[in-house]
Amino acid sequence: MDNVDFYVHGYHSIDIGGTTVYITTTHVCLLIVMVVLIVFAIVANRAIKKADPTKAPTGFVNILELLVETVDNLVLSNMGRTLMPRFRNYIGVLFGFIIVCNLSGLFGLRPPTADYGVTLPLGVTTFVMIQYQGFKWNAKGKIKGLFEPFFLFLPVNLISEFATPVSLSLRLFANILSGTMMMALIYGLLPKLALIGWPAALHGYLDVFAGALQAYVFAMLTMVFIKNATDLED
Question: Which residues face 67 on adjacent strands?
Fold first, then answer.
């Protein structure tokens, strides 16, 4: 097991009020992912500004238009016309961030989503948005739902509400971490001659398929939970 590396390393320690905080692999990989997304956003913004609106989009701009239309249609079909303009940017950024984190393992990084310190804030953010939108659009129904089918179920309903960010974050974290650990065990325990070719198939499943699927599931559940909380019909 000495050859197995789960890519969890501490690079630098910082003392904050007597508490030692470490800069770890997750922080470094998360920074790289953020830089990639920011650079992509800047390049995309410039490409759109330079595009001729009188001509059909081509090349990179055509890809951007396809991405935007796909996200818009996905949000519209799951959240309706009232909520779609309010959440298409959030859902697009959420999906983009998670899928890039998940796919970063293909490039030798440790996926930031394999750390619960990354997935839990995502779940909490979604939880806050669910509660805010629920009370904004359907305050009476939201409060009434806490006491259904009768008032003794209030503790159970409260637990159900607060379980949402935990289930969302744990699902994403556990799936990505399990794939990361499996690949670490394979590369650490098998001889190099036994690693020719076939691990690419595992990367295709664990990083590409599972990574894209978990990003889609997280974004989809976010939309469904917010839509159900608002109880809007349109």
Answer: none
Span 143-176, pLDDT tens digits: 877 777 777 778 888 888 889 999 999 999 999 9
Distance between CA atoms of 91 and 74, rounded to whole angstroms? Answer: 9
Closest CA to 12 of 31, 38, 39: 31
CB 130 within 8 A of CB 226: yes
Q: Supply φ then ψ for residue 115, to 5 degrees.
A: -115, 125
Distance between CA atoms of 27 and 4, rounded to whole angstroms? 21
Does residue 2 register a pLDDT over 50? Answer: no
Read off the pTM: 0.86
With residue 212 as reference, give the H or E element that holds it.
helix 210-230
Q: What CA–CA distance (Å, rounded) separates 211 from 104?
A: 10
Q: What angle do CA 32, 116, 89 make, to 5 degrees?
A: 60
- Residue 38: alpha-carbon gap to chain centroid: 16
Residue 53, SS3 per DSSP: coil
